[in-house]
Amino acid sequence: MNGFDNNFYDEALKPGNMLQLYANGAFPMADEKTGLINWYLPETRCIIPLDKFNVPRSVKKFMDKKSFEFRFSTDFQAVVRGCANRESTWISENLIEAYQRLFDRGYIHTVETWQDGVLVGGLYGVTYRGAFFGESMFSKVSQASKAALVKLIYHLKENGFVLLDVQYITKHLQMFGAIEISWQEYQNKLSEAYLQDCQF
Question: Roughly what angle, to the nearest 10 degrees, separates helices 15-23 and 93-104?
């Protein structure tokens, strides 16, 4: 994992620079102790192929039975703070402020899971042309974040997106067909995504 030089810390969090870093495949994480925000470019990247994903049977059954309502980008602050509300988090206040500036400019979107008028789960990510850079998700009730991910995948496909970047492989993401690809394959995916002009 390669961290950027943090001398450009403040400049990197300006919307234009932040978006350019994402467009080049980088993503930020704040050190929980120091608050310093590093930008990373892993040599191996994890994606969920939008042409070859999987919806776990258990999640599908749960979504059919549960009275979830899904909304897009209606309460960004509640979603990002839901993601940050855990014992150990890389989502600092400075990052939340920077994300808010991107959200205000239309480059961050949320998928929200609501139940009986209450936000019970969701996720957020950065969009640039045909790419969605998934950042984090949270759940207050069983399966709420997984259901949001399913809605995201279908939404991206419907709107012509090419790339769903989820950064690192986990067992949770493998359930949905997530795979690791090389840096060169990832760069090829980025190039393909940037040929599209998608609206979330």
Answer: 90
Domain that holds residue 98: 43-193
- Give the count of domains, the chain: 1
Name the percent of the chain lying above pLDDT 70.
94
Concatenated DSSP letters for 8-72? Answer: GHHHHTSHHHHHHHHHTT-EEEE-TTT-PEEEE--SEEEE--TTS----HHHHHHHHHS--EEEE
**Token reading at 56:** 């776990």
pLDDT at residue 6 above 50? no
Mean pLDDT for 95-100 is 96
Which residues fall within 8 angstroms of residue 93, CB to CB, at 6 or more apart? none
Give the single-character DSSP code of 194.
T
CATH number for position 58: 3.40.630.70
Q: What is the DSSP secondary structure assignment for residue 6, as one 8-state letter?
A: G
The per-residue pLDDT for range 54-91, each reduced to its tens digit, is 888 888 877 766 688 999 999 999 999 999 998 889 99
Amino acid in the structure at residue 11:
E
